[in-house]
Amino acid sequence: MIKIYHNNRCSKSRCGLEILEKSGKEFEIIKYLEEVPNHDELKNLIKLLGIKPIELVRKNETIWKESFKNKSLSDEEIITAMVENPKLIERPIIINGKKATIGRPPEKILDII
Known about the structure:
This protein is of the alpha+beta class. It has helices spanning 11-23, 39-49, 62-67, 75-84, and strands spanning 2-6, 27-31, 93-96, 99-102.
């Protein structure tokens, strides 16, 4: 089943959700700010996306700028920062089986559904 890690306050995430709704396919919404992925789940998600942990970080978030920017962090420390501060996780993330993408731009979702 397709999954979308979604934040309703984000316009790109809402666009991603709309694309999934229009596709007619079944999907599950994971409100990741409420259902925060644990360290292992986030690590697996990053692996599925085929990116480095830093590439999943929203670097313009205030908490990143104030607490983490310009620090030398390991991949594990970056993942821990996202688990402890889920607002740092880029969105939306769409998973379809063994494929995943960050829906930025939202049209990238069409590549995996």
